[in-house]
Amino acid sequence: MNKRLLLSGCIMVLALFLLGGCTKKAVRSTPDEAGTSRPTMSGDDTETDSDNVNSGAIPPENSARGLDFGAIVNVALEDVYFGFDEYTLTKAALGTLAQNVEILKSNSKIIVQIEGHADERGTVEYNLALGQKRASAVRTYLINAGIDSGRIFTISYGKERPIDPGHNEGAWAKNRRAHFTLAVK
Question: Which one of 4, 78, 99, 157 is least enclosed by Cβ atoms within 10 Å?
């Protein structure tokens, strides 16, 4: 009987010890999980326009629950791409978004879900937060450009849904994006 009691106690202590390790991790301040360094960029596309975001006037996002973002819509919006560990909009991103705004203005029944994505480097938590910042930056731009905030929703997939499964800079650049999924009111 004592052996059973001792064994049960050991199992309970071990279970408590293992469950104690299931606490949430803090988000790292750097995305550099693999020890890679920040890539350098050249050309005019590296400049950002930090004045294009006026987040103080942006209404909070409502729930997208119940909306069918898998519906077939005969309109396509171009993805917006970001630099490594960045969520500011480049000149190229601003040009793409200006085109997307015109499409949205001429199709007022379209509802947009902006998916924030990141490359595979960094922790899951870090990349989910970065993906949300990217989606939010795009949402803010669209609202400031005159698109009704009730038509725009965001979600972050972080590094969980890469468009290119490669493990090099070319693949990573494709995966650092805000993707638009559409639905109709």
Answer: 4
